From TrEMBL:
Membrane is among the record's keywords: yes
Record lineage: Bacteria, Bacillati, Actinomycetota, Actinomycetes, Actinomycetales
Gene Ontology CC annotations of this record: plasma membrane
Cellular location(s): Membrane
Keyword Transmembrane included in the entry's annotation: yes
Record's protein name: Manganese transport protein
Superkingdom per UniProt: Bacteria
Keywords: Membrane, Transmembrane, Transmembrane helix, Transport
Protein source organism: Actinomyces ruminicola
Length: 453
């Protein structure tokens, strides 16, 4: 005859097991969500680089509030495109260059790599020149020497990624992003914009063919091709590092090993990462968009109609004269932080492009040293820095369709993405963005060739 006590204990255990199985699991703690954030903020650095400063200051100084709508539209497209890039990396575990490298033949793959490298070179040009200008403004360092210093410091930042961890690199870049934000937004508190004119600037319009060139440079500076290639790599490496770290802590006994029922399936984990990435992208790109719009509004409110303010040096001088040396110094510090952060991210993107398309992985530090040379040559020959920055953003504008069209095709493919392929609304919205960018670039070419640009 069974012992009544043992029978009661067994019944209680069975009831507890049933209750535990059917009790809804609590939401993950907030710190777990925060651990999943970060890659989009690194990608967002590309959206507030010195090229943005040059393009947005030029737009505000020359055309006032007229081109505000370009930044709003470009930032909305950036949110869409960076989300697609991140989702591709999460679902496939591969970067966009890897996906393309696996699907293209040798000839097309080499041609595609060549244009992607041209985009990366234009990015390096903008970032190194911008940082060199900032050092010149702050410490009167010659531009060529400043370019060398920017390259050296960016190599130190890249060493964090190669020798420490992805999270350490992300933390350093995000810290610089905070400095950029303070440096470029701070001036608006001293010289607030005309909000009526700002809202009027949301109505799409242009002021002659010259404004089209500036609009194209703004678009190229906001929707960055190398950030599109890189974001899919960032999320892949970020989440792999988190997973490896947690596994190591479990093996060491410092992290709990969950019950089998509590471990999410592969599909559940993918869905959770995609939702976290959506938050990451929205927060990061909202911050970058606010900085870009602040730059244009500052130029429109404080620099419009003032001669010589459509260059970074002229803008700094005018800001210092009208708003005080403290605001001018904060602006220059923001420009310096922008150059340091974005040149590191640009070198990282170039390395991932080469690895995915050529299946060759060059050490980040060696690549940074090589790609620094063209930018230093441009500085050495005496090219006007701000105009070189604006033209580099036009080059980037032509590289955008070659990045977003393959991305759009990949994320809209059930063969590539499975159940996580883009829905109909997202597919058609991304197609509309691609068409708009291509039409703008064709118009720019026509105006330039006919002498109206």
């Amino acid at each position: 005859m069974p012992d009544p006590i043992d029978s009661a204990a067994g019944a209680d255990a069975a009831v507890e097991a049933i209750v535990r199985k059917h009790t809804p699991r609590p939401r993950p703690p907030r710190h777990r969500l925060l651990a999943l954030l970060g890659p989009a903020f690194v990608a967002a650095v590309a959206y507030v680089d010195p090229g943005n400063v040059a393009a947005n200051i030029t737009a505000g100084a020359r055309y006032g509030y007229t081109l505000v709508w370009v930044l709003v539209l470009a930032n909305a497209m950036a949110v869409l495109i960076q989300y697609q890039s991140a989702k591709l990396g999460i679902v496939t575990g591969r970067s966009l260059p890897q996906v393309l490298g696996d699907r293209l033949g040798r000839g097309p793959r080499l041609a595609y790599w060549a244009q992607a490298e041209l985009v990366a070179a234009a990015t390096d040009l903008a970032e190194v020149i911008g940082g060199a200008v900032a050092l010149h403004l702050l410490f009167n360092i010659p531009l060529l020497t400043g370019g060398v210093i920017i390259g050296a410091v960016s190599m130190l930042l890249l060493a964090l990624q190669e020798r420490r961890s992805q999270r350490t690199f992300e933390g350093a870049v995000v810290a610089l992003l905070v400095v950029v934000t303070i440096g470029f937004v701070g001036g608006l508190f001293i010289s607030p914009p005309d909000w009526g004119e700002t809202f009027a600037g949301l109505i799409p319009r242009l002021q002659g063919s010259g404004s089209l060139l500036v609009a194209a440079s703004m678009l190229g500076a906001t929707v960055m091709p190398h950030a599109i290639y890189l974001h899919s790599s960032l999320v892949r490496d970020h989440h792999e590092e988190i997973g490896e770290g947690h596994a190591a802590r479990q093996a060491a006994g410092t992290a709990p090993i969950p019950d089998a029922d509590a471990v999410p399936s592969g599909q559940e984990r993918t869905g959770r990462l995609i939702r976290a990435t959506r938050v990451d992208v929205i927060w990061a790109l909202a911050l970058a968009g606010a900085v870009n719009i602040a730059l244009l509004l500052l130029a429109a409110s404080a620099l419009s109609g003032v001669g010589g303010t459509d260059t970074i040096e002229g803008a700094h001088a005018a800001i210092t004269a009208s708003l005080g040396p403290a605001v001018g110094a904060v602006f220059a510090v923001g420009l310096l932080a922008s150059g340091l952060a974005s040149t590191s991210v640009g070198a990282y993107a170039g390395s991932e492009i080469m690895a995915g398309l050529l299946h060759v992985r060059v050490p980040l530090l060696a690549r940074r040293a090589v790609t620094l040379i063209p930018a230093l040559i441009i500085i050495a020959v005496g090219a006007e820095p701000t105009w070189a920055l604006v033209l580099s953003q036009v080059v980037l504008s032509f590289g955008i369709p070659l990045a977003i069209v393959p991305l759009m095709r990949a994320t809209g493919s059930e063969q590539v993405m499975g159940r996580w392929r883009d829905g109909a609304v997202l597919r058609w919205t991304s197609r509309a963005a691609a068409v708009l960018i291509i039409v703008l670039n064709v118009a720019l070419v026509v105006l330039t060739l006919t002498g109206n640009g």
